[in-house]
Amino acid sequence: MLDLIGAVALLLWGLRLVKTGVIRSFGVRLRRWIGSGTRNRLLAFGVGLLATLVLQSSTATALMTASFAGSGFMSSMMAQAIMLGANVGTSLVTRILAFDLHFLAPLMIAAGVFAFGFSHSKPAKGLSRAVLGLGLMLLSLRLLGQATEPMQHSRVLVALMTSLDAVPALAVIVAAVLAIAASSSLAIVLLAMSLAASGTVTPALGIALVLGANLGGAIPPVLGTLNYGALARRVTIGNMLMRLIGCMIVLPFIETAAALLLDISHRPAALVVDAHIAFNILLAVIMLPVLRPLSALMRRFLPEATEIEGGPRHLDPDSLDTPALALAGAARETLRIGDCITKMLQTNLEALRKNDTARSSGIAAMDDEVDRLNSAVKLYLAKLNSSALDEKNEQRSNEISGYATNLEHIGDIIDRNLRDLVDKKIRNQLSFSAEGASEIEELYRVTLENLRLAQSILVTGDAQLARQLVESKVDIRHLEERSAANHMARLRDGKIESIQTSSLHLDILRDLKRINAHIAAIAYPILKGSGTLRETRLMESPGLDYRRL
């Protein structure tokens, strides 16, 4: 059992390496490609199949597709077609891995480690990680075979399998629970294949385990989209519903299916894999023609009015015909983004003060929410008919869109830079000097004040407040320069804390300065409209005629 647990863990780890490696190498292009495959359901089906062959994870494809559907970039029907393709794709991955390719495992592991050590670019490292992960998966399959071979002599296991064979529905539930725990239907199907190869599992029980693995594999994407809007949750819940329907159709006929597949497969291990492929192809054949009524059912089950906490609240499609109302809704939604950024900054500061990695880890989820809301606002504004907007409303639309974009950039800086710096401080058990910590907290405080000021400017459009915000950039620059100079003085005095945290201190100052530059951007269109913004900050030269420039 210990060997079996270790082999399954190695399989899951290899699968994770392949998925993360491919996403880091081709993530942007892959997302763009998935998003473009929405012209018809057959094309969407093919996109889902190929994407899952590359990622070796239908869960990853499901989460990408749900995010596109949640942002309004594709219809629910096309998203469900992609998911049907993803289900077939993950079954074909099982077939590829079922071939006896264990001799490639050491070569791929060695090549992956060697390439990763000598790669310098992010795409190359990601590809090396994927090769290493594939090698580990092949090795784990060999270990699975070795671990399950003696199990046919275990009386306890034989008794357990006999009881499951007598109650196929219970076998489906057990396999589903294992798939949920492993977050992978692929791993459970391969485990069932190994048990079938050792003679521990009968053909009918193998098919029941395949049904459970498929049903359980649909649940992790549902859990992963609980905080998404209704549009995204329709995709994952709809996919789970389709698999549940498929299981209910096939379960009463597993004995007949086992007899038919034995004539084709001849070997019990091959029968399990073929059953996995046949089930998902059958599901696609049944469900592709009825995707439209299924999508209508999901719309009734999850109407957009039931958007939960994590989705947009103020982007009412019915207001698009009235630009003033639509812009007011977009502004309110953008204020929510600003509130989320405020929370991210406060959380980051608290994590910095208390060396709390739990607080720091929550920032990534907040940044994902910022990205979703930003995409929703920009898509909503894009739906406004620009020809129907007067000059004032068009300028307002540009202000809101620009501010939302700047907030999204701030979120990226907090998540990718400031959070990493806090994690580095905690990981290396570093501490700032009392003076250095005070200077950093002061800069955080001023940044939060400026963000609140920017929120007020978005609502009021007040030119005086806008001028105050731009002038605060000078204060920020002076604070940053003064803190950097004080830090260098402490270094010259040989303060141990300052020496150890030198790069951290200066990097935090730099990132907070960049954040303030994005915050101040809301003021420029307002000052330009009031005629109080100069085109250049350069001091006038006596010999230069600015009227001719």
UniProtKB/TrEMBL annotation:
Residue ranges of every copy of the PhoU domain listed in the record? 335-414, 440-523
Primary location class:
membrane
Query: What GO cellular component entries does it have?
Result: plasma membrane
On whether Glycoprotein is a keyword of this UniProt record, the answer is no
- A Pfam family annotated for this chain is PhoU
Reading the lineage from the top rank, the first entry is Bacteria
UniProt-listed GO biological process terms: sodium-dependent phosphate transport
Report how it sits in the membrane: Multi-pass membrane protein
Q: Which SUPFAM superfamilies match?
A: PhoU-like
- Which Gene3D superfamilies does the annotation name? Phosphate transport system protein phou homolog 2, domain 2
Q: Which UniProt keywords apply?
A: Cell membrane, Membrane, Plasmid, Transmembrane, Transmembrane helix
Where does it live in the cell? Cell membrane
Give one GO term, molecular function aspect. Answer: sodium:phosphate symporter activity
Q: Which InterPro entries match?
A: Na/Pi_transpt, PhoU-like_sf, PhoU_dom
The residue ranges crossing the membrane are 44-71, 92-115, 166-192, 204-228, 240-262, 268-291
From the Swiss-Prot or TrEMBL record, give the protein name. Answer: Sodium-dependent inorganic phosphate (Pi) transporter
**Which species does this protein come from?**
Neorhizobium galegae bv. officinalis bv. officinalis str. HAMBI 1141
